[in-house]
Design brief:
The structure holds three protein chains of three kinds.
Chain A (H helix, E strand, L loop, with lengths): L8 H17 L8 H7 L1 H11 L4 H10 L4 H13 L16 E6 L50 H4 L4 H7 L28 H9 L3 H13 L9 E15 L6 E17 L10 E9 L3 H17 L5 H7 L3 H9 L6 H19 L18
Antiparallel strand pairs in A: 1-2, 2-3, 3-4
Chain B lengths: L13 H12 L10 H16 L5 E2 L13 H10 L5 E6 L6 H14 L2 E2 L8 E5 L12 E5 L13 H10 L3 H14 L10 E3 L3 E3 L18 E6 L4 E5 L5 E3 L27 E4 L4 E4 L2 H9 L4 H7 L44 E10 L25 E11 L4 E5 L6 H9 L6 E6 L14 H10 L1 E4 L3 H4 L6 H11 L5 H14 L16 H13 L5 E5 L7 H17 L3 E6 L2 H7 L2 E6 L2 E7 H6 L4 H11 L1
Chain C lengths: L12 E14 L5 E14 L3 E5 L6 H9 L6 E8 L2 E4 L5 H10 L1 E4 L11 H11 L4 H14 L16 H13 L5 E5 L7 H16 L3 E5 L3 H7 L2 E6 L2 E6 L1 H8 L1
Parallel strand pairs in C: 3-8, 3-9, 6-7, 7-8
Antiparallel strand pairs in C: 1-2, 1-4, 4-5, 9-10
Helix pairs in contact in C: 3-4, 3-5
Classes of the chains: A alpha+beta, B alpha/beta, C alpha/beta.
Chain lengths: ~375, ~625, ~250
């Protein structure tokens, strides 16, 4: 009852809401606290924050719980929550060179400036399913390997290693992509970005993209029929903490108000185009909230691909308009809404065509070549 | 691209921040679904939309508690414009009680404190999905439409950048072609809901999608129509007293939905939008409020009948009669909506003049030129590595004259042509057309939109590859219709007649007129491309290797056609070819190009019989072999 | 009459050639220079029929082509009297030259230069239209010319490419002489014709003088010259060796 427009809509909605709440919140299992979720589902929370474009671990964890683990639904909750809030301030520009690295690898170079720091990763661990009977035993008294020299004892060079890109630049192997002017980055939450768009708009769209959609687009760009896009060499990948500063409303001085974790990737692209500097490399950049290496690497590769081929093909439009999870998911979900008014209109045209054919007005068309139909 | 946007200040005033923080600290009630700054942005976008009816105003669409596609755009507009003294009505498919409508109405009322009503007469803001209420709307009403796809051109153009350009330039010929093709294929326009309209004579707009039945309600309305597309981040409007015309040809009537004998099984109305009800072929009002009020005797059905679009019910006898060869006749002057532009008497002798055209691919511009050219044997700049594709090429062509540009591939001849027509920007040089201000304006300096406009009726090109000049998915007639509709033709029969004449002239059988061009052979495609180029009788015609790539016998036929077409027209033609036989057959005068430069020019037969430059002698010797 | 004709630029000369030089530079053979004309002086008057005679390679055809600008002369002057007054052809702009060619003087070569896949009537009528006739007049005039040259009417709409050499030459001559301009340059116009058709062709050419057309022609056979020419000009080694009335000159040569 109530779906399509007979009476009783509100009761049906309330009943559906109640069913969700009862099954979810009163499931016969212990309640999952926000702390549990941020601690045990760190990567899911990071993903939700990245796709929502809002960095707040407890809020993201609450959304993740409310969405029953659906990361897209959770980022929707987070973004809708964000829409209710005033924008109090705009942060100072963040300098990624200030990052305190938790993990940092440079695949393109054996001995980069600073350490190859594996950090917290399961990249090199066999993917063997563990099914512990109960909670794990407390960790042994002895410190974990590598933790002997705790973070406090890391040197400044270890905490903030030099950048691989700087090494390329020092050897004059990188195209100079930095511009003298320092344009204000494009805020895609306030101004819709469409091709042709600034690089910062495309980067922002990728940073908020649904992770799977971004990876799929990257993979399609490498293997798919569009051509042009190369598999890059990964120059550097980092995960670490950055300080967030805002200007004090009264003193006007920048004040650190917190830290946030990001994943950063730099992609080294081998230039081979006729109009390109074939004696140098160009570099693509990826940065997203939390720990999400797949997303950052795909973003870095697509950044350089977009600057090279975005306008000669569909890539820029794809990046700006098709990878947002709320957009694609929402449009898909809307197919579930009643469409009987539009469908009736379509049926009427089918019947009119049939009536015309039966009246023998014209011979049936020999060819059927859709010249373009709109979505409804 | 001109994107109008609505920013909040980047650095809020300190005092305001303080106040907001204080309010937050005070633990006041939730502000609602949208913060006040966002609502202000939305109101600004709505005002801009009202000022430019039918134009899609970009706005910083926020995420709503409903999915993108479930009315997030309509909801934002409603929240932006509604106040506590307003009364909101929400319908989905014309129904107040549908789940989506119910959900939205609940959220709007709870977070804004406005009133709720299912009675359109009481409502001040009506948010709707897919319908206009049957009840009369007046200047107290704001009708807010939920829009899934705001772009009416999406069906004919997938690139959003190109769609933006088409709107900016009022270049809607692709829309007209799709209507033309629809009639050709189906005998009628089969577009169902979201029917495209021309608003205020300027912007083509998607109608939300409401059924065609409701489209006339937009025209010269008393109420304000606001359209919100949340996912696509666009707001547009049809203000009161605005002209809204469904796109259709002058001689093809716009038709609303109709079921002969159909009436609502509940209230008996037959002058409302009916939807299928039940499996027995019955119908019911889509507007449940109206239906209930008619049953209760609380509806002014006489006035409603006046509003109903009964004059637009389908009339098969008034339709175009899509297929079959058009009756050819001598071209009637009244078919053409505007006279073909011709140079004024006393204007220049030439129709096209090109001075010092140059094109450098790569760095350096003119500085890359030294060290290139025939005497250096290379087009690659020794200083910058840039490719000097053409440099210092000058010529003019008079009406009734054909000029040849000959050279091997890579000599720069096609580059010159592309620079002249505007397919690529020239590095240097000037181009004048007698048809543009009597030759006073420098064409390359004109804005891109104006230059593209020149291609409609001042200058046409025939490419080597028919796919470059045609849409292969579209019928032969439709390709010609594209050029004609761009030039303002709006009569379906007149377009068909003109297209038929042109196809007949280029010896494409009229029985193939309605077939998509991709089903044609290479030679036939080239003939269609030629017919399209001649559709508006442009005073200048550029031919880029028009027979290259065709089988010898087919090429010969196309060549014969071009020769007779040029002979019977007063067109100024430029023919680019590597083939002396083509140049000889078509042109009076010729320029010989080598590595981007003109090395010799003269009468075509003189160049062939008495070539002076070593390169020309080589070309001639090769041609004689 | 063993010296060159004491020519002077008279007012009624349709064509006036002075000190015309032409050579060819063959870049493919190290820039070898092949001389052709070494200073030709010649006048042709209205109604006059001037025949160029001389051995092959003497420069007869080259002279015609230099006048018509199919060859670009090295130096010298070619002046044509037109409706708008005398025009110097050697330095005339290409576009103006192309226009003069249609209206003011014609050139009939040994070979038909008809566009392929076009029929005789169309070819001849096209020339008529270039010379100012409307479509109907041009077809009428073309039909008359083809009749006069005895071209079988069944061939009038047949592709010229499939005609015999003699038929093509008649089409060519018909095209050249339809609505004749004030000067006609003829290069061996009857070389491929059988005796009967040759007579018809010669009669046609002969009638041109009566229409006030000046003719400058290269003929291979002396009979044609005797029959048509009012003056014979002997060309040898790119120069005019001597000229005079056909009777005296041909006998002297004989």
């Amino acid at each position: 009852m109530g779906y399509s427009g007979a009476r009783g809509g509100l009761e049906a909605i309330l009943a559906a809401e109640d069913l969700v709440r009862r099954k979810r919140d009163h499931a016969p299992a212990p309640w999952a606290s926000t702390e549990q979720i941020t601690a045990r589902f760190r990567l899911a929370v990071d993903r939700v924050m990245g796709e929502a474009g809002l960095y707040d671990e407890p809020t993201a964890a609450a959304a993740f719980r409310q969405a029953e683990g659906d990361t897209l639904e959770a980022s929707h909750l987070l973004r809708a929550q964000r829409s209710t809030l005033p924008r109090l301030a705009v942060s100072e520009p963040v300098d990624p060179d200030e990052m305190t690295v938790l993990r940092r690898i440079v695949p393109a170079f054996r001995e980069p400036d600073g350490p190859q720091l594996l950090g917290r990763t399961s990249d090199y661990t066999g993917r063997l399913l563990e099914r512990p009977e109960g909670p794990p035993q407390p960790p042994p008294e002895t410190a974990a390997p590598g933790a002997a020299a705790g973070p406090a004892e890391r040197t400044e060079a270890q905490r903030r290693p030099g950048r691989f890109l700087d090494l390329l630049r020092k050897n004059d192997l990188a195209v100079e992509g930095r511009t003298a002017d320092d344009p204000e980055p494009y805020d895609i939450t306030r101004k819709p970005a469409r091709p042709p768009a600034e690089r910062s708009a495309v980067l922002a769209a990728m940073a908020r993209a649904e992770s799977g959609a971004l990876v799929a687009l990257w993979y399609r760009s490498v293997l798919g029929p569009d051509g042009d896009v190369h598999e890059i060499t990964l120059g550097e990948l980092r995960h670490g903490r950055l300080p967030l500063r805002v200007r004090h409303p009264h003193t006007g001085n920048p004040v650190a108000v917190g830290e946030f974790r990001v994943t950063e990737a730099e992609a080294v692209e081998d230039l081979d185009g006729a109009d390109e500097d074939r004696t140098r490399f160009d570099v693509g950049y990826g940065l997203c909230f939390g720990h999400n290496e797949r997303k950052a690497i795909a973003m870095a590769n697509l950044d350089i691909a977009n600057r090279r081929f975005g306008r000669s093909g569909p890539l820029e439009q794809l990046l700006l308009l098709t990878i947002d999870g709320l957009d694609s998911g929402g449009f898909l979900e809307h197919l579930k809404l009643p469409h009987y008014v539009t469908f009736r209109s379509m049926v009427e045209r089918k019947q009119a065509m049939r009536a015309a054919a039966e009246a023998g007005e014209d011979p049936p068309a020999r060819v059927a070549e859709p010249a373009g139909k709109d979505c409804r | 691209m001109n994107t109008t946007t609505y920013d909040t200040p980047q650095s809020p005033q300190a005092s305001r921040v303080g106040a907001l923080v204080a309010a937050a600290d005070a633990g006041g009630p939730a502000a609602g679904l949208l913060d006040e700054d966002a609502k202000r942005e939305i109101r600004r976008a709505c005002l801009a939309a009202v000022c430019v009816p039918g134009y899609q105003v970009p706005f910083g669409s926020r995420e709503m508690p409903v999915a993108r596609g479930w009315g997030s755009g309509g909801l934002q507009v409603t929240l932006g414009v509604i106040g506590t003294d307003d009364t909101v009505k929400v319908i989905d498919q014309g129904d107040d009680a549908g789940v989506n409508a119910t959900n939205l109405r609940r959220m709007i009322a709870q977070t804004t404190g406005c009133g709720e009503s299912a009675d359109t007469r009481e409502a001040t803001v009506v948010q709707t999905r897919h319908r206009v209420p049957e009840e009369a709307l007046d200047d107290r009403h704001v009708l807010v439409y939920q829009v899934p796809v705001p772009e009416p051109l999406r069906g004919v153009q997938k690139s959003v950048a190109e769609c933006a350009r088409m709107h900016a330039e009022g270049d809607y010929s692709a829309m007209w072609v799709s209507l033309y093709e629809d009639i050709v294929r189906n005998g009628m326009i089969t577009a169902s809901t979201g029917y495209p309209v021309l608003v205020g004579g300027r912007y083509v707009m998607a109608t939300s999608p409401i059924p065609r039945w409701d489209v006339p309600r937009l025209h010269q309305a008393e109420h304000l129509n606001l359209f919100g597309a949340g996912r696509e981040k666009r707001i547009y409007a049809v203000p009161p007293h605005t002209e809204v015309r469904p796109l259709t040809f002058d001689d093809v009537p716009f038709e609303v939905e109709h079921e002969p004998g159909g009436r609502c099984k509940f209230c008996g109305s037959d002058d409302v939008y009916l939807v299928n009800a039940g499996t027995e072929g019955a119908f019911a009002c889509s507007d449940t409020e109206w239906c209930a009020r008619v049953q209760a005797g609380d509806a002014d059905t006489a006035a409603h009948r006046e509003r109903a679009p009964l004059a637009l019910l389908p009339d098969p006898t008034a339709r175009a009669g899509r297929r079959g060869a058009p009756a050819l006749r001598a071209a009637a002057a009244d078919d053409a909506p505007e006279p073909v532009r011709r140079p004024a008497a006393g204007g220049p002798e030439w129709a096209l003049r090109v001075d010092g055209i140059g094109k450098v691919h790569g760095a350096g511009g003119a500085a890359a030129v030294p060290g290139t050219g025939p005497e250096h044997g290379t087009a690659i700049s020794p200083s910058t590595g840039a490719v000097v594709a053409a440099w210092d090429v000058s010529f003019d062509v008079a009406p009734g004259e054909a000029l040849g540009l000959i050279g091997e591939s890579g000599s720069g001849k096609s580059t010159v042509l592309r620079c002249v027509i505007g397919d690529e920007p020239a590095t240097a040089g000037r181009v004048h057309l007698a048809s543009v201000d009597g030759g006073a304006s420098e064409v390359l300096a004109l804005p891109p939109a104006v230059r593209r406009r020149l291609r409609i009726d001042s200058m046409a090109v025939v490419y080597q590859d028919p796919a470059a000049g045609l849409d292969l998915r579209v019928s032969a007639g439709g390709n010609i219709a594209e050029r004609l509709t761009a030039a303002g033709w709006r009569g379906y029969h007149a377009i068909r007649r003109r297209a038929g004449e042109l196809l007949d002239r280029v010896e494409v059988p009229l029985s193939r007129m309605d077939d998509p061009v991709h089903t044609f052979s290479g030679g036939m495609r080239q003939r269609v491309q030629i017919a399209k180029a001649l559709a508006t009788e442009p005073p200048v015609l550029l031919l880029d290797e028009p027979t290259t790539g065709l089988d010898a016998s087919v090429a010969a036929g196309v060549l014969d056609l071009l020769r007779s077409l040029l002979a019977e027209r007063d067109v100024a033609a430029v023919v680019v070819s590597h083939d002396f036989s083509v140049i000889e057959a078509l042109t009076d005068r010729t320029l010989v190009m080598q590595t981007g430069r003109v090395v010799e020019r003269g009468l075509t037969d003189q160049l062939f019989h008495d070539p002076h430059h070593p390169y020309t002698q080589r070309l001639v010797a090769a041609a004689r072999r | 009459m063993t010296t060159t004709h004491p020519s002077s630029r008279t007012q009624d000369a349709v064509l006036s050639v002075r000190a015309l030089h032409k050579s060819f530079t063959l870049h493919s053979i190290d820039g070898r220079i092949v001389p052709s004309l070494h200073g030709v002086d010649l006048d042709v008057h209205t109604g006059e029929h001037v025949a160029l005679a001389g051995p092959s390679g003497a420069g007869k055809s080259s002279l015609l082509r230099c006048i018509y600008r199919t060859y670009l002369p090295d130096s010298g002057s070619v002046r044509l009297r037109t409706a708008a007054g005398p025009v110097e052809l050697t330095t005339l702009g290409d576009r103006e030259m192309a226009r003069l060619r249609g209206r003011e003087f014609g050139y009939v070569s040994q070979f038909l230069a008809a566009p392929p896949r076009t029929g005789p009537l169309e070819v001849v009528a096209a020339t008529g239209r270039r010379r100012g006739l409307d479509r109907a007049e041009a077809r009428e005039a073309a039909a008359a010319a083809l009749h006069r040259l005895n071209l079988d009417e069944t061939l009038w709409d047949v592709d010229c490419g499939v005609l015999s050499g003699g038929e093509r030459q008649r089409v060519n001559l018909a095209a050249g002489t339809v609505e004749p301009p004030r000067l006609l340059l003829l290069d061996e116009p009857v070389s491929a014709l059988d005796p009967a058709n040759r007579e018809a062709a010669l009669a046609l050419i002969d009638s041109l003088a009566g229409q006030g057309v000046a003719v400058l022609a290269v003929f291979h056979d002396m009979d044609a010259i005797r029959q048509l020419a009012s003056r014979v000009v002997f060309v040898a080694d790119g120069r005019i060796a001597r000229q005079g009335a056909p009777a005296e000159l041909l006998e002297a040569v004989a």
